[in-house]
Specification:
This is Recombinase zinc beta ribbon domain-containing protein. One of its GO terms (molecular function) is DNA binding. InterPro entries: DNA_bind_recomb_sf, DNA_bind_recombinase_dom, Zn_ribbon_recom_dom. With 156 residues, the protein is an alpha+beta fold. It contains 4 helices and 7 strands. The radius of gyration is 22 Å and the shape is extended.
Length: 156
């Protein structure tokens, strides 16, 4: 099922030049970058609508990695370091209490020091998001009329 949802051909397109070889004597196929693909739209009937295909691609990019313990975080796959921009990965263990779970960036263990902060606890991140949500909600409640006008303008 995953292969069907990842292939653009099911949206009614033909995709050429997905692979290449260095020479006619080199038989090894290499993947071509996506920007070098040639896509011909509406060549046959679509099985998957284009908008659903795009949504699936976004979801697959941000899919959550399952930990060995089976625990996942609400923020898995969407947390990035504010300093270096690296993706932060959810880390936990069976003997960890919930307050000890944390997010760590992958290059920290490779000794590739891009920033000073190597991790953030999941509880701290949840509290930061909760405090921000409370601020936004209080703003909406305080300036409800203005907020309604802004939302209506954006929906037009």
């Amino acid at each position: 099922m995953r292969k069907i949802l990842e292939r653009r051909e099911y949206t009614g397109c033909i995709v050429n030049f997905k692979t290449f070889t260095n020479s006619i004597w080199d038989k090894k196929k290499r993947d071509n970058p996506v920007e070098n693909h040639s896509v011909f739209y509406d060549t046959h009937e679509a099985i998957i609508p284009e908008d659903i295909f795009e949504k699936v691609q976004v979801l697959c990019q941000n899919r959550q990695r399952k930990s060995k313990t089976g625990k996942t975080s609400l923020f898995s796959g969407i947390v990035y370091c504010a300093d270096c921009g690296e993706k932060l990965y959810y880390c936990t263990a069976n003997n960890f209490e919930k307050r000890r779970d944390f997010f760590e960036y992958s290059t920290h263990r490779k000794n590739d020091e891009k920033c000073k902060s190597h991790y953030i606890r999941a509880v701290v991140l949840e509290n930061m998001v909760w405090m921000h949500m409370k601020t936004v909600i209080s703003y909406i409640l305080h300036y409800e009329d203005h907020f309604r006008v802004v939302v209506q303008e954006q929906q037009k």
